[in-house]
Write a structure and sequence with these properties.
Blueprint (H helix, E strand, L loop, with lengths): L4 H15 L10 E7 L11 H9 L8 E3 L5 E6 L1 H8 L4 E6 L2 E2 L6 H4 L7 H5 L7 E6 L40 E6 L24 H10 L3 E6 L2 E6 L7 E6 L1 E2 L3 E3 H14 L3 E4 L15 H11 L3 E5 L18 E6 L3 E2 L1 E6 L4 E5 L7 E8 L2 H9 L8 H4 L3 E5 L5 H10 L4 E5 L17 E4 L1 H12 L4 E6 L3 E2 L6 E2 L19 E4 L3 E4 L18 E4 L2 H18 L5 H10 L12 E2 L8 H4 L6 H4 L4 E2 L4 H10 L4 H8 L20 E5 L5 E12 L5 E9 L4 E6 L2 E4 L5 E11 L10 E9 L4 E10 L4
Parallel strand pairs: 6-10, 6-13, 7-10, 13-14, 14-15, 15-26, 19-20, 20-21, 21-22, 25-29, 31-38
Antiparallel strand pairs: 1-3, 1-4, 2-3, 5-12, 8-9, 11-12, 16-24, 17-18, 17-23, 19-23, 27-28, 30-32, 32-36, 33-35, 33-37, 34-36, 37-38
Helix pairs in contact: 1-3, 6-13, 7-8, 13-14
């Protein structure tokens, strides 16, 4: 049917307006992401692409990306005045400025409960039928981690491709690396350093190779980083297939438009799981309809794709967690029971515990120890580029404070100024959490308490120091600890959903590495290594992606929400001493605001007993419940939405955790949470509830207290009620109290965290 005359006139008027807009003082073109209501397409245009080009884009603009899967729309470079005019078009739901986001940057599979020939590895055939899509910096395909030896053919449902480019012929893909694509259109031509990068899926940064092999790397014997962490390296799902989507570029970061294009392509190609170790910017605070990671992951989840995302590295500050959408699984970082100790020996005889991955010789002869910050100001204290006085640091061990620049880059600054070695000290914000790095000169890191003493000693004059590197230590206790840098809750955007969801190994993780840059990641580091050890929630995220791949392989019918529920309700909340998880930054007990439901425990996740499931409409109802209007929800949900006149209660969102937010009122306070659980264990099962909140003046009840399942009754509901006397209620120093709800049938323990707090946002 031909478009009506009014529509044609409207399109003609818009085109004229876009081609001859009024003058604006500052009108430099920028990249925008345009979310379109696809139902407006006039039938005269054979495709949406024709419609965009003919009616929505000013001449001579062309789309950078066309989005067809996770949502409809395109990205383009437009003058702000044209973007503003486009935003007024009735077919345009949203115009989003493109933004740059940073990356969030073995023994760990065993540490989370995987055993050779037993349990989930065996029951899932190591994830062989599952495709994991990794949105990152690409891949170095020649590494042993990406071998396809003894792997069967690619699943027939796979529709992806292997794009060729400089140094990356399509023949590099195989039955392991089944797809490889790259997206750079969101960057200005000058933003990507062509001499340091490959305009192909090849990884010039290393981050993508590391995360991909963490999720699904094949067994590689005799792996190590210069002798550190020696052993067999393997990913969490070593038989899963990998598809890499290069959306981040060395030194240039990751543009939202490219990230969204990666989501769009991955879902269209047929991935089952997506790992996205990207976030930051204002993604932790922007509404979901302005966050392309939230938009892209919603479209993926709605099509049955599990999305694992990193919680960010801005801990231990409160409310530092990122990637907050409830359809994402947000992963914080924990330590494992392996570390790389070093010892800083001071001239007065004190021996200070430290960590390092420096692979050279010990610094046995004492050298002068100097602290540039004592006289040179903040830049010198932080060892920023150009801030060190060569006359002061030449031939010395230089004390540098952590922050403002990459840790290994400070060593490069020290070396360039003539320094012989470096001691990297934590400030109070980093506490006692230590990260080992493959430094370019003899160097070690020490915690905040010892660091203060080291700075004082170095500032007093005539100080000396030496450094001894002690290799690899296994069996460290306590472990895990919540990593000091791991993003912490509560959510700054949707307080009713506890984030992060859980933690996974993210400290001192050995995985494959690029040959384009040395293990420090610095341009001047010409060392070549097959493996590298990195720390960050970037490393935790692919652990959960790999875990999801195993669960999807073992339970193909499970939804992404069911997979997340299985991981959360079986997570561990004790360390290897059988004591409550602690916070690396403070050594005090951690809370659910730090670790969510706990540490991934794949020993139990294969058979969780019960799951809290969610469907696409549940997410839409949640958005209605928390106050989103239909049009912004449509930007996220890919289809028209009508919120009911009486909005649903956010407390009834079927999430496997409970965030109890009381208002500021006095007297009696109460909240009720309706939930439903699905039996995925034995058909005839009886579960009994136990619920506690460890705070004076707070009570918790569950009705019914017993759930009886049968072959004909596989899903049942219950209500958890939390009440408090505002005058008697005693919350902790962090303004919260904590507890749990557990359902048990004598064989399974289905545990959910409970957090009680006062409203932070009115």
């Amino acid at each position: 049917m031909a478009p009506s005359l009014p529509i044609l006139l409207l399109l003609l008027l818009l085109l004229c307006t876009l081609q001859h807009p009024p003058a604006i003082a500052s009108d430099l073109p920028k990249t925008y992401i345009i979310r379109v209501d696809h139902s407006f397409k006039p039938s005269v245009f054979p495709t949406h692409a024709h419609w965009y080009a003919a009616s929505l884009l000013p001449v001579p603009s062309r789309p950078l990306h066309l989005y067809r899967t996770v949502f409809h729309g395109f990205s383009a470079v437009l003058p702000p005045r044209a973007a503003a005019a486009l935003a007024r078009h009735p077919a345009v739901l949203a115009v989003l400025p493109d933004r740059r986001r940073p990356l969030h940057t073995t023994r760990s599979p065993q540490f989370i409960g995987l055993r050779t020939r037993l349990g989930l590895w065996s029951d899932s055939d190591y994830g062989s039928d599952v495709v994991i899509g990794v949105l990152d910096t690409g891949v170095w395909p020649e590494r042993r981690s990406f071998s396809d030896v003894n792997l069967g053919p690619v699943p027939s449902r796979w529709k992806g491709s292997c794009e060729s480019g400089p140094s990356f012929p399509s023949s590099l893909c195989n039955n392991k690396l089944v797809g490889a694509r790259f997206f750079s259109q969101g960057h200005a031509a000058s933003a990507i350093n062509a001499t340091a990068e490959f305009f192909s899926p090849r990884d010039a940064d290393g981050h993508g190779t590391h995360t991909a092999s963490t999720a699904a790397g094949r067994h590689a014997f005799d792996a190590s980083l210069g002798g550190y962490a020696a052993g067999i390296a393997k990913g969490v799902a070593p038989k899963s297939r990998l598809a890499v989507y290069k959306v981040c570029w060395r030194g240039a970061g990751c543009m939202d438009s490219d990230i969204l294009a990666g989501f769009d392509a991955a879902v269209a190609d047929g991935v089952d799981v997506i790992s996205v170790s990207i976030g930051g910017g204002d993604g932790g605070a922007a509404p979901f309809y302005l966050d392309p990671i939230a938009i892209g992951s919603f479209g993926a989840t709605a099509r049955g794709v599990f999305v694992s995302s990193s919680a960010g590295n801005d801990g231990p500050a409160s409310m530092s967690v990122t990637n907050l959408a409830p359809w994402l699984t947000t992963v914080g970082a924990g330590t494992i029971d392996r570390t790389f100790p070093a010892e800083l020996v001071l001239g007065d005889g004190r021996r200070v515990a430290a960590v390092s991955l420096y692979s050279g010789s010990n610094l046995l002869s004492p050298l002068p120890l100097v602290y540039p910050g004592a006289t040179g100001g903040l830049s010198a204290a932080l060892c920023m580029d150009g801030a060190l006085d060569p006359a002061m640091v030449r031939g010395a061990v230089v004390v540098c404070e952590r922050g403002s620049s990459p840790r290994a880059a400070k060593g490069e600054v020290v070396r360039a100024a003539g320094g012989a070695a470096m001691v990297l000290v934590n400030g109070l914000a980093y506490g006692e959490g230590l990260i080992a790095d493959a430094h370019v000169l003899p160097a070690c890191a020490v915690g905040a308490d010892e660091g203060g003493a080291v700075k004082a000693y170095a500032s007093a004059g005539n100080a000396t120091a030496s450094i001894v590197f002690l290799g690899t230590e296994i069996g460290v206790k306590p472990a895990p600890l919540v990593a000091s840098f791991s993003g912490r809750g509560p959510s700054g955007l949707a307080q009713g959903v506890l984030k992060p969801d859980l933690v996974a190994p993210g400290v001192n993780i050995l995985a494959a590495w690029t040959a384009a840059v040395g293990p420090s990641g610095l341009a001047g580091d010409d060392r070549v290594t097959e493996f590298n050890v990195l720390s960050g929630t970037s490393m935790a995220c692919p652990h959960v992606a790999g875990a999801a791949a195993l669960l999807k392989s073992a339970h193909p019918s499970w939804s992404p929400a069911a997979v997340r529920s299985a991981l959360m309700t079986t997570a561990a909340v004790e360390d290897n001493r059988r004591l409550p998880l602690a916070d690396e930054a403070t050594a005090r007990p951690a809370t659910a605001l730090d670790f969510g439901a706990g540490l991934v425990n794949l020993d139990r996740a294969m058979d969780p007993g019960l799951v809290y499931d969610l469907r696409t409409r549940d997410y839409v109802e949640f958005l209605c419940a928390v106050g989103y209007e239909p049009k912004p929800i449509e930007v996220i949900a890919h289809e028209p939405v009508a919120c009911p006149e009486e909005r649903p209660a956010a407390e009834n969102f079927n999430y496997p955790s409970f965030s109890v937010l009381f208002d500021g009122g006095a007297g009696n306070l109460s909240k009720s949470f309706a939930r439903r659980v699905k039996n995925v264990g034995k058909p005839d099962s009886v579960y009994r509830a136990e619920a506690r909140v460890f705070a004076k003046g707070v009570e918790v009840r569950v009705k019914p207290g017993k759930l009886v399942f049968s072959p004909g009754v596989t899903e049942l509901g219950f209500v958890l009620s939390v009440s408090a006397d505002a005058r008697a209620m005693k919350l902790g120093d962090d303004g919260a109290a904590f507890g749990f709800l557990s359902w048990s049938d004598g064989e399974h323990l289905v545990r959910s965290p409970i957090v009680v707090s006062r409203m932070l946002i009115s």
